[in-house]
Design goal:
The protein is an alpha/beta fold. The protein is built from nine helices and five strands; from the N terminus they run E-H-E-E-H-E-H-E-H-H-H-H-H-H.
């Protein structure tokens, strides 16, 4: 039985690393090595980036991949902390592997996971990422009335009351705002998040676990 091969492009910081990773993957029946040309008609499914550290150059490269290609990036890096991990996630990275753990079998497994639309992180980084996200919410976004979901606290309050069946006048009275303010809040949510109507906005908030 034949299986569809995953097309993978590689980018490493030096010719030796590039050749090493290429030789590891070229013989694998699950993988097809593809050229990485941003102007090509057909993009690879996965781009593997071998880097020493996740610096601004790497983040810019991730942003360019996200902007110009449907390919999903996998970082093979010597080291990464939780702050850089958040930055990489914001730039579209789909998988992270430490170079010390990047055996051919593990690398192919992660490439397959990412190609299916899932993600991969080293187990110890998952908890640290969650802690960093919580810290950002508490210390950075929360004091500004913002939330990772894209909804401010006031917007969540309005949507909660919409979900409970209150009309605009009742919501305005309960929250001590004018009806015009409530309408503006709902319009801003629907427009910013590209939702269809109030019901869609309520469904979005419910899926995010906010109400």
């Amino acid at each position: 039985m034949t299986t569809n091969r995953i097309s993978v492009a590689l980018r490493a910081p030096d010719p030796i690393s590039q050749a090493g990773v290429t030789s590891q993957l070229r013989t694998r029946p699950e993988i097809t090595i593809a050229d990485w040309n941003e102007n090509a008609d057909q993009a690879p499914e996965v781009v593997v980036l071998v880097v020493d550290t996740v610096d601004e150059d790497v983040l810019q490269l991730l942003r360019r991949i996200r902007r110009t290609s449907p390919a999903r990036p996998v970082l093979v890096t010597t080291g990464i902390d939780e702050q850089k991990l958040v930055s990489a996630a914001e730039c579209g990275v789909a998988g992270v592997i430490r170079r010390a753990e990047a055996t051919p079998e593990h690398l192919v497994h992660v490439i397959g996971t990412v190609a299916k639309g899932a993600g991969h992180l080293p187990a110890d980084l998952v908890g640290r990422l969650l802690e960093e996200v919580g810290r950002l919410q508490r210390q950075v976004l929360g004091p500004r009335g913002l939330h990772f979901t894209g909804l401010a606290a006031r917007e969540v309050d309005v949507l909660r009351l919409v979900a409970e069946g209150y009309d605009t006048a009742n919501i305005a009275a309960k929250l001590s705002y004018s009806e015009r303010t409530i309408k503006n809040v709902l319009h801003a949510i629907i427009t910013r998040l590209q939702l269809r109507n109030r019901s869609h906005a309520v469904a979005y908030a419910m899926r995010q676990g906010l109400i």
